[in-house]
Amino acid sequence: MPVKFDNDDDDNQSHAVVDIYRCQGKKGDEVDCEVDPIDRISTDLLIAADGTSRTIANYMEETDQRERKSMNLIQRLFAGKPFSVTRYIDDNRRVYKSIPMKLPKDWRPDLNYSARSKDGGMNIDALPANRDGSYCGILLLKEDDPMAQANVDPETLRGFLNEKLPQFSSMLDDKVVAQVAKKHPSFLPSFRSVGPRLNQGDHILILGDCAHTVKPYFGLGANSALEDVSIFSDCIDDSNENMIDAVHEFSRRRAKDSETLVRISRELDRPGILGTVTFIIPIILDAIFNKINPKLFAPNIISMLQRDDMTFNQVARRKRLDRTVQVAVLASLMTGATWMAKFVVAAIAKAIGRRSSTVSLVLAGITAGMIYSKKSLTQYLNSDMAPADVLAKMKSPITEDGETLEKDVKA
Ligand SMILES: Cc1cc2nc3c(=O)[nH]c(=O)nc-3n(C[C@H](O)[C@H](O)[C@H](O)COP(=O)(O)OP(=O)(O)OC[C@H]3O[C@@H](n4cnc5c(N)ncnc54)[C@H](O)[C@@H]3O)c2cc1C
Q1: Where are the membrane-spanning stretches (predicted)?
Q2: Ligand 1 centroid distance, CA of 208 (Å)
Q3: Does ligand 1 have an atom closer than 6 angstroms to the CB of 128?
């Protein structure tokens, strides 16, 4: 826990001072810390990369609030935007259990293996833990799934694995299955961003998950943390190793992007109808428009987020522009179609001697039936699905050039 920021009056002219406490336990409320610090560290540069614990960022927020309270109205007016942590409500919670596994000798040890159930309730992703075929599987389940509880009967879990994931079940011995069955589930992290800056004064900056926490569906957590490191390295070079300038430059370059990354990622993870509007319909529209005119319309937002020649803000702006043009095109088409439909309805009504309203109702019913029977559309409109489940159902690769090494094993 930091005790002082920008401390100019200590002997060695260091500027961030951190007290170290001995703590025990896992996370959150379970952690017990000793009352007195065991050490005090002074430093010219404190890089907070403490992940979802977010100790420094929370402390920055508290400090900011405290300082603002002590200001008069005029001072507050000129103090700029307050520093705050945006804590999004997680309305699409998933839990996971990790499963250590060893691949058979004839399976490639450098691929991401994954499988998903058709209804979207279960999803497993296994990534290499080393180069010798040891893997870490993440079994993702809904919070109320019986298999997502602690102390599941190992035989029941084995039955579930045999039925849903026979490819993986055969790799796991009874000891591992018993360990996994006993485990408490873990929650995927909730979306969090900080802003409007990523620094506190001249000597402290925050990066990685503590600045921008996203769910791991699109591989943007560790990768954006590494990107932060690379950008900070550029800032140090560009400022001729003047660390104070580098700290401010990093915040200037990256703060807005961090917030945008979290905002976009959250929009891609809304439940039910909201998820259909913010994630599924845009993905379908992008697939159609990009296919018709790839020069005019960019690919879907997930593949855009992977591009290293665009910042997250530039991606957001580009997609806003795409969406505006798409809506304008669709609105024009629909206006034209409405005029055409009116003309056709009037012609049919006249030919069969019925009222136009009766013909309209019958035609609307037939159209709705045809849309509903199109499995390709309705299969995506399932509120139980997480984004990763929808991606698995897309026929075309979601990344721009289809370069993903993922080998999907359909459950
Ligand atoms: C199940 C799961 C699967 C994921 N899969 C992917 C993926 O496939 N691809 C991807 O890009 N991302 C993935 N992520 C996200 C990725 O793990 C994180 O985005 C990444 O680890 C963030 O790195 P970080 O260094 O900011 O934080 P962390 O890796 O969380 O590191 C923070 C470190 O700080 C330590 N710490 C915390 N508080 C203190 C303190 N007070 N004092 C001292 N040390 C402290 C912690 O113990 C930890 O070691 C996944 C996350 C989860 C939960």
Answers
A1: 327-349, 355-373
A2: 8
A3: no
Alpha carbon of 163 to ligand 1 centroid (Å): 32
Confidence of residue 16 (pLDDT cuts 50, 70, 90): confident
Q: How far apart are CA 134 and CA 102, in angstroms?
A: 5
Class of the domain covering 2-89+189-267 = alpha beta
Q: What does the alpha-carbon distance between residue 198 and residue 86 come to, in Å, rounded to a whole number? A: 13
Is 50 exceeded by the pLDDT of residue 407?
A: no
| DSSP letter string, 7-34 | -TTSTT---EEEEE--EESSSGGG-EE-
What mean pLDDT comes out for the span 195-219?
Answer: 94
Sign for the CA dihedral angle at 277, 280, 284, 290 comes to positive
Q: Is 136 in the pocket of ligand 1 (CB under 6 A)?
A: no
Domain boundaries, the chain: 2-89+189-267, 94-187, 272-408
Atom of ligand 1 nearest to the CA of 112: 8
Per-residue pLDDT band for 232 (boundaries 50, 70, 90) equals: very high
pLDDT tens for each residue of 107-154:
999 999 988 877 767 889 999 999 889 999 999 998 889 999 999 999
CB atoms within 10 A of CB 111: 16
CATH topology agreement for domains 2-89+189-267 and 94-187: no
Output the CA 49–ligand 1 centroid distance in Å.
9
- Those residues whose C-beta lies under 8 Å from the C-beta of residue 54, and which sit 6 or more positions away, are 85, 192, 209, 210
Domain 94-187, CATH:
3.30.70
Question: In angstroms, what CA-CA distances link 336 with 171, 333, 342, 359, 360?
Answer: 58, 5, 10, 19, 16
Between 256 and 385, whose confidence is greater?
Answer: 256
